[in-house]
Predict the structure.
Amino acid sequence: MSEDTPQPAPEPADPADVPAPKRDGFGRVTRRWARRGLALVAAIVAGLLFAVLSIDLGRMFPQLRGLAERQASQYLERPAHIGRLSALITPGDFAIEDLVIEGRRPEDRPFMRVKRVTLHLNWWPLLRNILHPQIHVEVRLIDWQMTVESWPGGIHNIPKLTPKTPPSNAPKAYTTTVDFAYATGGHFVYEDHGTPWRVDAPNLNFSLVRSEALKQYVGHAQFNQGLVQIL
């Protein structure tokens, strides 16, 4: 048959013969919520840094962990618990172990658990401008889990992640910037109790870098064996 010969119109396909749609939607939904979880992690890290670095380190060291818990709880407006707070041998390196941020109510699941957080403080920007210090840190999270829940009426379990706005005439003591964040062994869960539907993204690793040229954070996240469950 020549190429100019008209072809017969195809017959309508039997619905039973139509292949099932690809599961691209699954990947998009999971990646979208994983990215939202990543943004939450970055905000929480910045909030915890603001709380912990607001502590008067001149106080007695045996009281430091309890003081850090109170400052973090006040900042997040949510009870926070720290199993151990320590300074490492390398100057400027600190560790927070067994960090727990509670849920909306005491009987709810914790919003976040982190087995270990390590912080590296870059001393040079801090010492370069004593009058208006700039605190630059690098953060690493190991073995962490975040659970985001929502209920009808716009209710959710996300704590307050941004500092209260100071008066316009109040002097700004310092600025805090997370230059780099790297997390391994993560598990992000989003659960909507109203629909209901949930997203489960285990084995989540991510890296996040502050780009001064773009004035924003850029990074990469990956996970496997994720699940989206509807009804």
The longest helix spans residues 24-52. Helices lie at 24-52, 64-76, 123-128. Strands lie at 80-87, 93-101, 112-122, 134-151, 155-156, 175-192, 197-211, 216-222, 227-230. The longest strand covers residues 134-151.
